[in-house]
Every structure is written in structure tokens, then in C-alpha cells.
Amino acid sequence: MEAVPRPRLFTFRNGLFRSPAFYRPAYGVFNLAAWVVAPRLGMRRTMWSGWARDWEEETTSDLIVSRALAGARPGAILLLHDSDGSPGSGILWGLSQRRLEPVTLTSLVMEPLS
Predict the structure, then answer these.
(1) What's the pTM?
(2) How many angstroms separate the CA atoms of 29 and 3, rounded?
């Protein structure tokens, strides 16, 4: 089978370009092509266990915080989109009150849950 070229999409971190390590399908729906090609491109197929539905037009920062924290538990993957960051401090505060530590997705999948 012919090798699939690496994606031309990159993330910028610490001044270095890196290929994405994870693939999250739009709307949480994999199609056959995405299911097969993502690992060939070196990306781990990834889904989320909770979301804040932060893309909804009438969603407020308080509602985003409430929805995110409703899905927060050890090992949870919370889906949040790029924003102005205003709900971020509320989410972090709520996680600390629950004695939950936010970690990167890489850290989460590499370490066993305790």
C-alpha cells in the first residue's frame, strides 16, 4: 500500500512547527475516509466525553462554564472551541474546586487513569 503523505497543517508551539497528533471529526462523526486515513497520517482518532456547546449563538460565558463543568470528571475530554477566553478562568476555578487537574490530551492518553 502506498504511503500517505503527512498533512500540511501544522500547529505552532515553542517556535517550532509540529504536525497534529490527534484527529477530532467535525460534529463527532467519522466517515470511512477519516477513520482510515487519520492513523496513516500519524494522528490518533479522538472523541470527547463532554462539551459546552460554546458555538451556539445565545450561549453566555456562565453557561459555557456550567456545561463544561457538568462533563468534568477524571479522564474526561471536554470539547471547547477557540474563543476570547472569557469562560476559561471560570472553568479552571470549577475544576480546582472539584480537585481536578486540567492536562493536555497527550498527557491524558499516555498516562493510566488513577
Answers:
(1) 0.73
(2) 25
